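Design request, tokens follow.
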């Protein structure tokens, strides 16, 4: 008699197996959806007036500096826990990005505490959804290991009854599950371990790839965001309050540049939505 792994093991071992598997599955899907559909920490772009004012301030600052050291254009320096951090100017959003923020080329937005853009969730991973991403990959690791262990147990129990080759022949779905889990468990568990390391040291993937900070406090490029304690770093990343979203979902989208008004000679300007028939004087319409 052929049977799948879950009903067979529920009868042979314990009926709690499908319950645990269902809980893990729904937790994985819940954290996946929460990561995909939540605001990662998008920073609003500057309005045309704000961008023009900021450009004016930059020109004044670079023009009035005299002799000696002249700061590079489009950057600012701030001190965080004794460490000098440069704030870079975003030419797309027209703002000075806050510390740890970066512009995502795929989402075309500046994101607070930018970690990376994850194609599997279809969203950036940043300040507001990092904990949900971490819980997603961690629970997915448990689910993959759980399925892999149950499939192996199923094959072993069936082998004791009818032999190994017959067990493989009778349960082709279990064999396929074992192969898929075997090749995927290493990458998933490895990714969970990597992000566990990042959380314990209070770093982001972006900072780790660039080698921005050193884990040793005595070095010049020490991490100013680390609390010096693994437990504190984990609590801040996973249990701290979630900052409110800066996106105005009910607001109107404003154009990046002001639309020029139509000149008085009746010719439509570039980008104007007024039709040619609307620009005909009233006297000519009556004459026609």
């Amino acid at each position: 008699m052929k049977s799948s792994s879950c009903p067979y093991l529920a009868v042979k071992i314990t009926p709690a197996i499908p319950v645990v598997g269902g809980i893990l599955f729904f937790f994985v899907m819940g954290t996946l959806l929460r990561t995909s559909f939540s605001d990662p920490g998008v920073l609003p772009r500057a309005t045309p007036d704000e961008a023009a004012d900021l450009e004016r301030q930059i020109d004044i600052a670079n023009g009035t500096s005299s002799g000696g050291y002249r700061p590079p254009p489009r950057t600012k320096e701030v001190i965080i826990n004794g460490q000098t951090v440069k704030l870079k100017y975003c030419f797309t959003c027209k703002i000075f990005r806050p510390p740890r923020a970066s512009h995502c080329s795929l989402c075309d937005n500046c994101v607070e505490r930018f970690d990376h853009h994850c194609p599997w969730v279809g969203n950036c991973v940043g300040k507001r959804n990092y904990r949900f991403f971490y819980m997603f990959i961690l629970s997915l690791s448990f689910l993959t290991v759980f399925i892999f262990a149950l499939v192996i147990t199923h094959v072993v129990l069936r082998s004791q009854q009818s032999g190994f080759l017959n067990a493989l022949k009778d349960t082709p779905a279990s064999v396929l599950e074992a192969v898929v889990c075997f090749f995927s468990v290493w990458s998933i568990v490895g990714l969970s371990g990597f992000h566990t390391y990042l959380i314990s040291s209070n770093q982001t993937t972006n900072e780790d790839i660039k080698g921005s900070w050193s884990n040793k406090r005595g070095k010049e490029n020490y991490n100013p965001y680390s609390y010096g304690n693994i437990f504190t770093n984990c609590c801040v990343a996973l249990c701290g309050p979630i900052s409110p979203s800066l996106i105005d979902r009910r607001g109107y989208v404003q154009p990046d540049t002001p639309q020029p008004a139509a000149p008085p000679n009746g010719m439509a300007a570039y980008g104007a939505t007024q039709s040619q028939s609307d620009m005909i004087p009233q006297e000519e319409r009556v004459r026609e």
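Comment from the thread starter after seeing the answer: thanks! Residues 1-38+129-241 form one domain.
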